[in-house]
Design brief:
Ribbon_hlx_hlx; 4-stranded mixed sheet; alpha/beta; 43% helix; RHH_8; 22% strand; CopG family transcriptional regulator
Length: 140
């Protein structure tokens, strides 16, 4: 897939997305016990480690799925210039990302609609509220 991507694993917390999970009391107690015994710095450290272990455990299946779906893996930044070129060439982009897709702040909703046929992000889409609204019928 065209476009530059870069890995995002191991970035500082400022480059992450906050999620909420519900755990049973006993599971949470086990996490707290492991934290108290010094295996993990805190609950977040435990959860991140558990997620990374599961992602690594399924790494081969993930690699096959990424290839099958033609996903960009990591960070994909879409600039105004890239969108203007796609619009001018009358070849709207099909953006598929596993990770973070970022649409430049200077992209207008009209340009986004003219240059993007579809946006599919497994992870996070960063764009202005107006651009996200303009692409709402093209995301999924």
């Amino acid at each position: 897939m065209a476009g530059k991507t870069s890995p995002t694993r191991g970035k500082p917390a400022g480059d992450s997305e906050k999620i909420t999970i519900n755990l049973g009391h006993v599971d949470l107690g086990h996490v707290d016990l492991l934290v108290q015994d010094g295996f993990y710095a805190n609950r977040t450290d435990f959860i991140r480690t558990a997620i990374r272990n599961q992602v690594e455990r399924h790494a081969e299946a993930t690699r096959r799925s990424v290839a099958r779906r033609s996903l960009d893996l990591g960070l994909r930044h879409i600039s105004r210039a890239e969108l203007e070129a796609a619009r001018d060439a009358k070849q709207p982009l099909d953006i598929r990302v596993l990770g973070l897709a970022s649409i430049a702040d200077d992209v207008t909703p009209d340009l986004a609609r003219a240059a993007i046929a579809r946006v599919s992000v497994l992870g996070t889409l960063q764009a202005s509220a107006a651009v996200k609204a303009a692409l709402a019928d093209r995301t999924g």
